[in-house]
Amino acid sequence: MLIVRVLMGVIKDRHGTYCVRKTVPEKPKGLQAAVARELDNGKSAQKHLKRSLGTKSLREANIRAKPVLVEFDRIIARAKARLAESTAPLIKRTSLNDTEIKRMAEWVYAKALAWDERIRFGGRDEQARIRAEVKAERPWQMARPERGDQHPAFTLKNQRKSA
To answer: I want to staple 72 with a disulfide (CB 3.0 to 4.6 A). Which of 22, 97, 148, 159 is the partner?
Structure first.
């Protein structure tokens, strides 16, 4: 009598057909999601990789399982590589060069001039339009009720009254 051992990961389903199942490790964090993206199956995470071997013979199942397990290892390795690539630390800059500083200053100056010109030529109607824009863009800044035609960008806070 010949005894045939089952390879690790080879299991028999409810119909008696052998299949291969490999668990995707939880660590590193995000690997199961990366495997799901690698397989492009629409799932958010893939906990197990499973494929039928299409045989009810244990000997044939062991022969067919080896290439499938190798393929599963390749899928996990590609997912790990993609995960390591996407989580590579970014180099944080600590300074700006002179050209960048100059461009930023020009932009701020141009924006201030544009706002000033808009208010000078538009008057109170323009202030109401600006208030509506600011309210739409940043509703958290417009939480307090406004008085009159004062726009929050043009009110002076913490004014001291002269005695």
So the answer is: 22
